[in-house]
Structure formats: structure tokens, C-alpha cells
Amino acid sequence: MSHILKIAGRRTAVRHQLRLPGFWRFCGRQGVRGAATTATAAEQVAPEETVRPFQEIPGPKGLPFIGTALDYSPFGRFPIHTQLGNSAIERYKTHGKIYREKLGPGREMVFVCDPKDIGTVFRSDGRLPERPPVNSIATYRKMRKKPPGLGNLMGEDWHRVRSSVNKEMMRPKSVGAYATMQDDVSREMAELIQTVVRKGDSGGQVDNFMNLMHKWGLESLSLVILGKRMGCLTLDQLAEDSDAQRMISAVLEFFLYFGKLEMSLPFYRYFSTPAWKKFETAMDTMNSIAEKMIGEKLTELSKLEEPPQETDFLSSLLSQKDMTLDEAVMMAIELLTGAFESTANTLAFNLYCLAKNPAAQQKLYEEIMNVVPPGQPIDDRVLNKMSYLRAVFKETSRLYPTIFFNARTLTRDVVLSGYHVPAKTQIIMANNVISTLPEYYPDPEAYIPERWLRTESSAANVQAFALLPFGYGARMCVGRRFAEQEIFLGLIRIIQKFHVGWDGEDMKQIYKIFNTPDRDTFIFRERE
To answer: Is 113 annotated as a binding residue?
Structure first.
């Protein structure tokens, strides 16, 4: 990253010039309706005589040293890419709402499948919440002498960086300021689909639809983070040596091997395994392209005599006094490389659920037409009027989560399901199990967005902490509000133009840290 530092020789001047509005609301009001605002760990502790010791928490036995790691191998019960989500469901059926599992030396985890326990975990976070480290990324960045990134920062360093970002970037209005430019990209994406449909020889299908979704996500991120388009939103095949295509290919490769490394024994720490080599190459490519783009942006900023009229995310980061330039650049890199695939996947899951449930799709279409007449631009105020759109998003997240689990490292002792769990224990919160249980969701296999509407009596029965697609609290997903806004805009522009159908076998999820669709056989029919 040293060449970026050279490019930004006027760093101090740029920072004094840039006092720009923020972008993302990193955390804010609670993401769960009905969640208590404050509670101490002590309030969650049962009387001492009823608390059972940690060692009595049930769980699969596993083997010496490696624990249950073989279960997640290609020949095990739960191959990582295809059956990981089912592992927690099966363990719950055998062991109940709390169980222990060891995945190798020093990797013992406690899984919880009860919203009350999840609430206890989050309320115990304290001022400096911790997450389990992402070891493969930490190893790579240490080797390359790069900052660890926000996700791997802990303690006061994490608080310093996060607080600095939050000062200007937690306000919903800051996110809303980007709605119009994101909408431009989403409208362009819908027009590309329309071009294919009107050819008449596609049967309404878009060849390699997920690739178009990836280009849509990357184009939106580039525009917001760097204030410029990459020019990748096209139906034509991008040149293999173009920055956009190299970035997309590298990110897909990165997540594939990232998942393998994080769920396997860490042999890569001692010698270069085949999976590590692929992971390392993908990371090198992602970082080199992102650093090139960011370096060009910093060069532009360093030449300015006055702050730009319109800001972007990187400029806002550079205006923060308590972050080093390296930290600001690393955060921009993480967002540029790590967010577009998950957003594309989530949009695809929403489209699939609507395709399989035409009555819900029709109800969403009617809301869109009532709130957003054709040709009307969309801003955050328009989005705030669309309650059924948000209900669709929540119900899709329940049935097709973008991530299976949330994780924390306890900062204090707590009691979960009647068991004493000591500080420093890694907790995995299996919301995907909770989503299958009729005690929390009547008729859990059915797609019912109405269960999330405040006007429905069933909404009152949805427990706090039962659904957390972006996590919760101070360490919730950094891009939550931006991701929601982008997905909402993509859904609006597609459903406004098309009736979305589905052809062939049902969609399944493949685990690559983020869940991805295994197929994309959508059928788009233009609405009259």
C-alpha cells in the first residue's frame, strides 16, 4: 500500500479540505422490533443452584485433536459447500437448542438456537464487543504487511476506528443521499434485462443472470465508494483482462476458498496448501485492482483546491481525523471487494421467492405502482413508504439467508439455556435453525411476508433476535443500510418492469462464506 501513500502526498491538506457528509450508518437503532434496549448479563443469569457447568453442554463427540472436522469434509455428513446449514439443524434435533462442537485444536464453539440466548449474548457485549478472528484473512494481511481491517480489529483499536467512522456515517440521511445514483444503476440493469427479453429468442431468460447481478453490484459500489462508474454494466462479455472482469472473477474465487480455509484445519499456517495458493492469488488480484482505483481517486483529490461539490464514501473516510490513511484505504478496499457478491446473491434470493410465490409478487407490484409510478425517480423518502417491500426482504432472509450464522466471542461469563458459559468462548448463533421452528414462525415452510407487517396480528409473535440478517449491535454488518437500499432499488426496478417466473429445479444454496444460488433460471416477462 506504500504506493498509495506516495500518491496521497497531500494527505493532510486533503483531510483539512474534506469535511464531507457521511455515508453508511454502521449501527444505530436496534435492528429487531421489540428488543430490549438495555440489559446486563446478570439479569440473564438463573439462580446459581439451577446453573449447570459448561462441561455438561451436549454435543457431537468427534475425534481426538480434530473434533468433528471430518464431518465437513467432501466425504463427511455435511460437506461445506452444500450441507453446512443443515449441520446446525441436525445437531439441534439431536442435542437441543444449545450444543458444543470442536472443529480442531483450539476451535471449540457453542451453538445457540434460542432467541433468548441470542439476546443474552448480544446484551453481554459491553463497550468492546468481540468476534472470532477471521484467521485466513488475518494471516494473509500479516504476510503482506497490511492493516488487519475492521473485522479483525479488537479492543480499543476497533473502538477507535469504528467510532471515527460512526461520527459521520451512521445517519440514515447519509445513506439516503446515495439512493438516486444507486437507482440510476438499477434502472440501467432492468433495461439490460428488457433488451434480452425483447430479442424474442431467449424465452425470457437472461444467460448467466448472476454475472449480470455481479456487474450491477460492482457498478453500484464503484459509484458510491469512488464516485465513478467502472463501465461494467453491460450484456456484452467483459474483456478477460479488464479490471471489472478480473475483480469479479477474483472475488468469486476468493469466497470459494475463503470458506474452505475457515472451515478446515489451518494447515495453511505451516505450509502453502492448494486452497491457500488459490486464496492468496485471488486476494492479490482483488487488492491490486482496488488499490489502483483508490490510488487514482486519491490523485484526483490531492489536486483539488476546494472540496468536491458531491462527496463519495472514500472522501468521507479521508475526512475522519482518528483513522490512519492505511486504515481508511483498507476499509474502502474491504467494501469494494467484499460487498457486491453478497448483495447480488440476496437480490437473486428475493427474486426467486417472488417467482415461486406469484401472489406475493403481485402484492409487491401493486405497492410499487402505488408509490413509484413509472418514470419517477426513487429516493430514501420513497423507500420509507414501502412496508411490503421490507416484509418481502425479511421473509426471504428467513428462508434464504445470505449468511447462516452470526458469531461472537464472549467478553464476560453468561448463562445460556441454563448452562454456565465462560468468557472468551466462541458463540455461533444459528438463526437458520430458529427460522425452521413453528414455535417462532407458524407454518415455517411457507413464504408469508405478511407475518412481518405491523398491521398483522402474527407480527406481534415474531420474537426479538429471531432474525438477524446483518447481525446486531455495535459490530453489526458495516454495510447494512447501504445493502438494504441497493437491494430494495434492484427489486423495485425489476418487478416494476417484469413478471418474474422460474424454470426447472428449485434453487439451492451453496456456502462460500456468503450463501450463493446454485442456479439462475429466471424467466422475465414484460408487464403490459
So the answer is: no
